[in-house]
Amino acid sequence: MTPRAAHSELHLSHRSNWLRAAVLGANDGIVSTASLVLGVAASGASGSAIATAGVAGLVAGALSMAAGEYVSVSSQRDAEEADIRLEDRELREDPDGELLELARIYEQRGLSSDLALSVARELTRRGSLTAHVRDELGLEDERRARPLQAAWASALSFSAGAALPLIAVVAAPASAREAVTVVATLLALAVLGDVGARLGGAPRLAGTLRVVVWGAVAMGVTAGIGAVIGSV
Ligand SMILES: [Zn+2]
Predict the structure, then answer these.
(1) Beta carbons within 8 Å of 189's beta carbon, 6+ residues apart
(2) Could you list the residue range(s) of the whole structural domain that residue 215 is in?
(3) How far apart are the CA of 34 and the centre of ligand 1, in A?
(4) Within a domain: residue 52?
(5) Number of domains in the chain
(6) What integer pLDDT is reported at residue 16 of this predicted model?
(7) Contact (CB, 8 A) for 135 and 101
(8) 47-93 and 113-135 helices cross at what angle (nearest 10)?
(9) Among positive and negative, which fits the CA dihedral 202, 206, 211, 217?
(10) CA 117 to centroid of ligand 1, rounded, Å
């Protein structure tokens, strides 16, 4: 493998982490909004009531995704920062021990002990905390937890997903509202399921089917409940 190939592979894996989160958020937005509008539609509600419920569902879902993601990524961030503070203290209290520790890490990765020690010395000269944070704690700068970024990304991807069934249900003529929404939703889920499967390295057909089937189940259940409540 050429160095160039290894380089582009690394970038793909970085990007796919981010993309996978976006695909999940969009998936959530599509399924929950489609189910919501179908449930309300099945109760016999008017077009404007369906649209109101859909918009409220989009906003509520996006905000709740953002809040949940912010809280969870923040606590991950706190844990990372506590680890870094601990490492910083160890480096000040026992620099020689920490140098040997770093050398042992490179040795375990396959360097001879002499080379490992000189790599550890050189990286320690350039910035001991950076070297320990990256190679001992495994916290690469590009992958550090970023609460605000995570919150925005999930709110945006949820909204983008939710907009699709919402547009379908509003744009469709009243007589074909449910059918158009179901078809548009299943198509969107199939595309997303395929993208998600490719990013995750899963078999494409199985990954796509899984997403489509669970989306169909969610829509069927809420439409059924909506119909029952509407007839009461
Ligand atoms: Zn250390």
Answers:
(1) 27, 30, 31, 211, 212, 215
(2) 21-231
(3) 50
(4) yes
(5) 1
(6) 58
(7) no
(8) 140
(9) negative
(10) 14
pLDDT per residue over 186-197, tens digit each?
999 999 988 888
Looking at the predicted structure, is the pLDDT value of residue 141 above 80? Answer: no
Mean pLDDT to the nearest integer, 19-47: 89
What's the CA-to-centroid distance between 143 and ligand 1, angstroms?
19
Q: Is the pLDDT of residue 202 over 80?
A: no
Q: Ligand 1 centre from 19 Cα, in Å? A: 32
The whole-number pLDDT of residue 116 equals 95
Q: What's the CA-to-centroid distance between 118 and ligand 1, angstroms?
A: 16
Handedness of CA 147, 152, 155, 157 (dihedral sign): negative
Stretch 78-84: mean pLDDT: 93
For residue 110, report the distance from its CA to the centre of ligand 1, in Å: 19
Query: From the CA of 148, how far away is ligand 1's center (Å)?
Result: 29
The alpha helices in the chain, defined as continuous H runs, are: 3-42, 47-93, 95-108, 113-135, 147-171, 177-200, 204-231
Q: Is 11 part of any domain?
A: no
Establish if 7 belongs to a structural domain: no
Alpha-carbon gap, residue 128 to 114, rounded angstroms = 19
**Looking at the domain assignment, is residue 88 inside a domain?**
yes
144 C-alpha vs ligand 1 centroid, how far in Å? Answer: 18
Distance CA 104, CA 81 (A): 24
Whether 227 has a pLDDT exceeding 60, the answer reads yes
Q: Which alpha helices (DSSP H) does 94-146 contain, by range?
A: 95-108, 113-135
Q: At what angle do helices 177-200 and 3-42 cross, to 10 degrees?
A: 160
> How far is ligand 1, taken at its centre, from the CA of residue 150, in Å?
28
